[in-house]
């Protein structure tokens, strides 16, 4: 199937809405025929082997196949702030970030734009030499991930929920855990166990992110248990995040209207350690909205 055929009847994500994006139609994620981004710059707040000293060359794509009520980037995920780029301009954006010293090219919420990204990577060709990071909410089709075989070096997916009730209520996707687990296993199949260079930078592998939400520690514990049942400790890295800040629609949901407590976060940290996984724990000071980047409606670089 050609890239145009894919965009004519879009089934890139588990929603499989069938939108004819070439005819100007949009589905759940609001993505159109061209790639749309809201920011492309060096980003210093990813995990240490992603950001490194020079920063990760991060491209924030507009639109999302989830609608998380607590999304820090709701301006672009739901509000679709951003500007369109041709595939050629997207390729030049990747090369621009590499030219600024980026440790990698970090594609944030890229699922709706996989065909355009593949074209852009082909256009950039051998000029692009840094690793490609696929930074995902975890709600992915394995068929779409297969399209990225040999093109993506590092997968950085969320694994947000175990409970279908929570995922339906908080992100509008009752089948989230089922789809995210299949996707995570596929990601590992595509890139394998973590590989680092001599400077400690990740060159290949999977880092599974999990944000510990308030009043959800039992759900978080089930996620850690599932990871332990399905992956050996050396096969993946885990990044346990404490950065939750009540914002967007979560301010009106009682269970989400406070920050995650130290007890809740430390309970899951201890469980990850007992399971033997390597990874990253986040400083409690990261729970600040000041870490949300500025997004743009017009190309600014």
Structure, explained:
Residues 59-184 form the Radical SAM core domain. Its cofactor is [4Fe-4S] cluster. It is a single chain. The chain contains 10 helices and 10 strands. It is of the alpha/beta class. Strands 1, 2, 3, 4, 5, 6, 7, 8, 9 and 10 form a 10-stranded mixed sheet that branches. β8 (202-211), α9 (217-230) and β9 (237-241) form a beta-alpha-beta unit. The longest helix is centred in the middle third of the chain and has 16 residues, at 176-191. 49% of the residues are buried.
Per-chain topology:
Blueprint: H1 3-8, E1 35-43, H2 48-51, E2 56-61, H3 74-77, E3 83-85, H4 87-99, E4 105-108, H5 114-124, E5 132-136, H6 142-146, E6 154-157, H7 164-171, H8 176-191, E7 195-196, E8 202-211, H9 217-230, E9 237-241, H10 262-274, E10 279-281
Parallel strand pairs: 2-4, 4-5, 5-6, 6-8, 8-9, 9-10
Antiparallel strand pairs: 1-2, 1-3, 7-8
């Amino acid at each position: 199937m050609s890239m145009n055929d894919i965009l004519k009847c879009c089934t890139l994500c588990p929603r499989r809405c069938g939108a004819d994006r070439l005819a100007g139609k949009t589905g759940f994620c609001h993505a159109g025929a061209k790639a749309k981004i809201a920011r492309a710059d060096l980003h210093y707040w990813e995990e240490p082997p992603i950001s490194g000293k020079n920063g990760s060359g991060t491209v924030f794509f507009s639109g999302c196949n989830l609608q998380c009520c607590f999304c820090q980037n709701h301006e672009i995920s739901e509000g679709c702030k951003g500007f369109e780029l041709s595939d050629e301009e997207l390729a030049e954006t990747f090369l621009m970030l590499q030219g600024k010293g980026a440790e990698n090219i970090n594609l944030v919420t890229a699922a709706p734009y996989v065909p355009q990204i593949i074209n852009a990577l082909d256009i950039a060709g051998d000029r692009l030499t840094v690793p490609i990071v696929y930074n995902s909410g975890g709600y992915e089709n394995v068929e779409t991930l297969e399209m990225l075989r040999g093109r993506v070096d590092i997968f950085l997916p969320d694994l947000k929920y175990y409970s279908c009730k929570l995922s339906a209520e908080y992100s509008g996707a009752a089948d989230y855990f089922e789809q995210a687990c299949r996707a995570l296993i596929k990601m590992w199949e595509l890139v394998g166990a973590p590989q680092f260079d001599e400077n400690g930078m990740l060159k290949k592998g999977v880092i599974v992110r999990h944000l510990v939400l308030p009043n959800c520690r039992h759900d978080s514990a089930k996620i850690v248990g599932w990871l332990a049942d399905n992956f050996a400790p050396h096969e993946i890295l885990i990044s346990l995040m404490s950065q939750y800040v009540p914002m967007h629609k979560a301010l009106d949901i009682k269970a989400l209207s406070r920050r995650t407590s130290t007890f809740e976060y430390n309970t899951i940290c201890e469980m990850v350690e007992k399971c033997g996984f390597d990874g990253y724990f986040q400083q409690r000071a990261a729970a600040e909205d000041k870490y949300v980047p500025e997004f743009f409606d017009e190309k600014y670089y």
